[in-house]
Specification:
CATH superfamily: Aldolase class I
CATH class: Alpha Beta
Radius of gyration: 18 Å
CATH topology: TIM Barrel
Distance between the termini: 33 Å
Structural class: alpha/beta
Shape: globular
Largest sheet: 8 strands, parallel, barrel
Number of helices: 11
Helix content: 40-55%
Strand content: 5-15%
Oligomer: single chain
Length: 294
């Protein structure tokens, strides 16, 4: 099942109190997300705290989520890094494990030039075999931007590069040869209006059914309803951006009793002020009532 459209949730990675990977909680969360409107899931992405996961943990998580919901939803593995050999090998292993697609972030920190970027994505896509590759453009975290002309060039050169998660709102727009997926929640509707396929989203952990309804309204031609839903969701989007992702969404999930909010350093729990902002947004949206879940 390779549906690279609609509401795709960048799934958090549940941890036990001692910091170990909680695979059973991941299974429960994956099922909850699919039943709450997600067409697909990304495991071991940024929201999944991928920098602190070992390759073995990433593959365990992928295999568990595939087993739990792989027949009902698209399961995408985050396999990118700033080390081409490492990223290619993890991509190969994820593809062999059955990932429906892989999400490959722009190499960060070592700051390759355009020639290096092209060589990196060629090598990783080759390792993927026939598995579809989604490029991930997020200059706020990686320093480097993939401009539209470079994205189009990669799409024309590499057959299995089929989509981009565009987390640079300034460059949001059609790219020849690629499906466009919103990389920021607040740009989800705008992406759909521009002809994009959907989004890889965070707030869908909390308001997945409404984001699914927004997607279905826009794709059915009911732009007014889509705009109405988008306006209602903006306070949730803002609350989940009060500090670095995934701290806010994990705090919200714990408040709602969905999963515990343990993080791995260097990510830390929400502060009291941040927590109050998140709780207030959940209460105003009707997700929490008097400190309890709806």
């Amino acid at each position: 099942m390779t549906r690279l459209s609609g509401v795709i949730t960048a799934m958090v990675t549940p941890f036990a109190e001692d910091g170990s990977l909680d695979v059973e909680a991941a299974r429960r969360l994956a099922l909850h997300l699919v039943e709450s409107g997600s067409h697909g899931l990304v495991v071991a992405g940024t929201t999944g705290e991928s920098p602190t996961l070992s390759d073995a943990e990433k593959l365990r998580l992928l295999e568990a989520v595939l087993d739990e919901v792989g027949d009902r939803a698209t399961v995408i593995a985050g396999t990118g890094s700033n080390d081409t050999h490492h990223s290619a090998e993890l991509t190969r292993r994820a593809s062999v494990a059955g990932a429906h697609a892989v999400l490959v972030v722009t190499p960060y920190y070592n700051k390759p030039n355009r020639t290096g970027l092209r060589a990196h994505f060629h090598a990783v896509a080759e390792a993927a075999g026939e598995t579809p590759v989604i490029l991930y453009n997020i200059p706020s975290r990686c320093v480097i931007n993939l401009p539209p002309d470079l994205l189009a060039g990669l799409a024309s050169e590499i057959p299995n590069v089929v989509a981009v998660k565009q987390a640079n709102n300034d460059d949001l727009g059609p790219v020849e040869g690629l499906e466009i997926l919103a990389g920021n929640d607040e740009a989800f509707l705008r992406t759909l209006e521009l002809g994009g396929a959907g989004g890889i989203l965070v707030a869908s952990h909390i308001v997945g059914r409404e984001m699914r309804a927004l997607y279905e309204a826009q794709t059915a031609g009911d732009a007014a309803r889509a705009r109405e839903l988008d306006a209602q969701l903006q306070p949730i989007y803002q609350a989940l951006a009060v500090t670095s992702n995934p701290t806010p969404v994990k705090a919200a999930l714990e408040m709602l009793g969905t999963v515990e909010g343990h993080l791995r350093l260097p990510m830390v729990p929400a502060s009291q002020r941040e927590g109050e902002a998140i709780r207030t947004a959940l209460e105003r949206h009707g997700l929490l009532v008097a400190g309890g879940s709806r």
